[in-house]
Amino acid sequence: MVNPLLSRLGEDVMGFLNEIQIKYPNAISLASGRPDERYFDIRDFASCFNLYVDTVAREEGKEREAVLNNLGQYNRTKGIINQLLVKYLKNDEELDVRPEDVIVTVGTQEAMILAVTTLCDREKDVIIVEDPTYVGLPHFAIIAGYQVAAVGVNKDGICLQSLEEKITYFKELGKQVKAVYVIPDYQNPTGNSMPDENRHKLLDLSAKHNFYILEDNAYGDYNYQGKRSLPLKALDKDRRVIYMRSFSKTLYPSLRLGLIVADQQVQYQGAEVALSELITKTKGYTTVNTPSISQAVMGGLLIKHHCSLSAVNTDKVAAIRNKRDLLLAALDACLSAAQFPGAKDISWNIPEGGFFITINTPFKVDKNDVILCAERYGVIFTPMSFFYLNGGGDNDIRLAFSYLSPDDIVPAIERLTSFFKYKLNIN
Ligand SMILES: Cc1ncc(COP(=O)(O)O)c(C=O)c1O
Prior knowledge:
By secondary structure, the protein is an alpha/beta fold. It folds into 2 domains: about 5-40 and about 310-425, Alpha-Beta Complex (Aspartate Aminotransferase, domain 1), CATH 3.90.1150.10; about 45-305, Type I PLP-dependent aspartate aminotransferase-like (Major domain) (Aspartate Aminotransferase, domain 2), CATH 3.40.640. It contains 13 helices and 16 strands. It has helices at about 15-25, 45-60, 65-70, 80-95, 105-120, 135-145, 160-170, 195-210, 275-285, 290-305, 310-335, 365-375, 410-425; strands at about 30, 100-105, 125-130, 145-155, 155-160, 175-180, 210-215, 240-245, 260, 265-270, 270-275, 345-350, 355-360, 380, 380-385, 395-400. The strands form 4 sheets. The protein has an 8-stranded mixed sheet, sandwiched between helices. The protein has a 4-stranded antiparallel sheet with strand order 12-13-16-15, with no helix packed on it. The longest helix is centred in the C-terminal third of the chain and has 26 residues, at about 310-335. The radius of gyration is 22 Å and the shape is globular. About 45% of the residues are buried. The mean pLDDT is about 95.
């Protein structure tokens, strides 16, 4: 016997998309939301590592050898670059946090696991997620036996009215909504963002109904339009927000670095304790500590750039923005009313940042359409239904533009248009 809850996850949809890509290698992928490798900072890996080692040796009056040996050892569970990260959070995210409230994690995925397992009671608590959402958090929570419920997302992020109704519904059942997981900036999968007004309203709701907000910021750096909204955490006067920051899209995924900011006090065994200490305790039994070698590379990068990554990201943000613009132009050229007979029932959002666009169609799409489209038309997309918890999104498609080569964008949309014609019986 294995964990029976595994079967509740259904099919491995990401594995399915990878299989399709392998089977149809010439198909252009509008499915992959990976960051663009051309902008990985991996070439500077060794120089950043060495800069970190030399800086620590100088500041702490140690031999270089001793710093290296320390990096090879087990290390502080909370992390070794917390001071640098606190300065970065201040410079780039306008967050005022203390180093002891930061835990350096193995990507956001570990941050989510630590937050859920530290905060939630399997019997009494419910975790609410956006629907659709990035499945990393709900899928972990489901296989670990936590209760997960979903609330729809609209163009302004999580639907606040439905959220309040769901909280009331669970209260009547004697359950507590303990945490609400949101991706306010350029959400994966929809590309939608939460306006400032809704950020304040969500914070008010969390105070009213006493839940924590698990804020996932993976794409915030990729802002293409005007002034970027501040993270919920920067507006969080009542300390309701547990902030999770990925560096996979900002730097590169193999670094496996992320962080949690948890500056709350919680009740534990009859006393008030810092939530960050309890999360650290959980981490001690999860991954022990985040690899010090990765932290040293990140530390060197932060030292080199005066604890701000905005200069590091300028070119990569411009490149992905350019891809978004090319994709929007290609959609206009192929699927607008002037060009396409079925256009009146087809629409798409204009994401202000991030890696994804949603297309709404008058026809339903499922995994068989993905196979057919790859085989016959040479393009791969993701049905939005793959990201829903309890079904939905049958008429929506997620297009990812981050990983695509700019030269492939027009052919990809032309091929997608041929697939749309087939679905709509247009010759
Ligand atoms: C919204 C969101 N959160 C988290 C992650 C995973 O982040 P990490 O690589 O830091 O674990 C992803 C990856 O695609 C994502 O889209």
